[in-house]
Amino acid sequence: MTARHDPFRWSCGGRILDWSRGPLLMGILNVTPDSFSDGGLYQDPGAAVEQALRLAAEGADIIDIGGESTRPGAAPVPTEVELSRVMPVLEGLRGRCQAALSVDTTKAVVAQAALAAGAHIVNDVSACMADPDMVEVLRAAGAGVVLMHMRGTPRTMQLDPHYGDVVAEVRRHLAERAQALMEAGVDAGQIALDPGIGFGKTVAHNTRLLARLEALVDLGHPVVVGLSRKSLVGALTGRPATERLAGSLAGLVWCADRGAAVLRVHDVAASRDALQVTMALKEQVSRE
């Protein structure tokens, strides 16, 4: 089933994010000690707030704040710990940041507190399956939500992932989760979908999903893609996480050309440049 709403307008807690002129950039802000690329850099709330403002100044449309690592093998953290990491950052950004704010969490309590503190979006790697109360929090707040596909949990997802047809299975799962939320009262316009690159998938699975990204775009919801600095880029280039900018930008351009609505990135300024060139060329093609 495809969504019946304007797919270029994402309704996010009182904000409408319009990506009709090209994909939006979601800047990554991990306030954790153990995230794969920038863990530990922004544990201090003051440093995290300054980094959020820097990302916004570089052109981020959304700042995605995460207080629990979802890297392969990561263990869950207690709710109180996640709140203690995320809430001071949201409070420090109140009235200071023009970008929409997203909280990267699977916990309804964290999502509810973050939305009350000014967040607009919940980025849920479990597609709202980890916490049965999450859907009601989203419905009541009218918040935007990213439903991501993940096979297993961060602790187990990369042990030995198997699919018959990864594109068909991911598409079906995301369509079913979107339908479940709509039946529970969440508006179709609040929902975005994420194939979950690197979440319970091999390199072959990830490249297949990106090659067939249109299969998810066709569902009618904004599609979010995060491949910035991920192991997929490392596997294809042989580069460590700190040297994956060029590969990440190549993937970003590919996804932008195939209909992605939001690109989740670490390097906002470089990503903005790459997008501006890509979209200028696409616009020229459309005129001819």
Short overview:
The chain is an alpha/beta fold. It is 41% helix and 16% strand.
Structure description:
The chain has 288 residues and is an alpha/beta fold. The protein has a single domain (9-149, 164-287), classed as Dihydropteroate synthase-like (TIM Barrel), CATH 3.20.20. Helix content is 41%, strand content 16%. It has ten helices and ten strands. It has helices at residues 45-58, 79-93, 108-116, 134-141, 166-183, 203-211, 214-217, 231-237, 245-257, 268-287, and strands at residues 9-12, 15-18, 24-30, 62-66, 100-104, 121-124, 144-148, 191-194, 224-226, 262-265. An eight-stranded parallel beta sheet has the order 8-7-6-5-4-3-10-9. A two-stranded antiparallel ribbon has the order 1-2. Helix 3 links the parallel strand 5 and strand 6. The radius of gyration is 17 Å and the shape is globular.
How many structurally independent domains?
1
Number of contiguous helices: 10
Assign the CATH architecture: Alpha-Beta Barrel
- Cα gyration radius (Å): 17 Å
CATH T-level topology: TIM Barrel
Number of β-strand runs:
10
Overall 3D form? globular
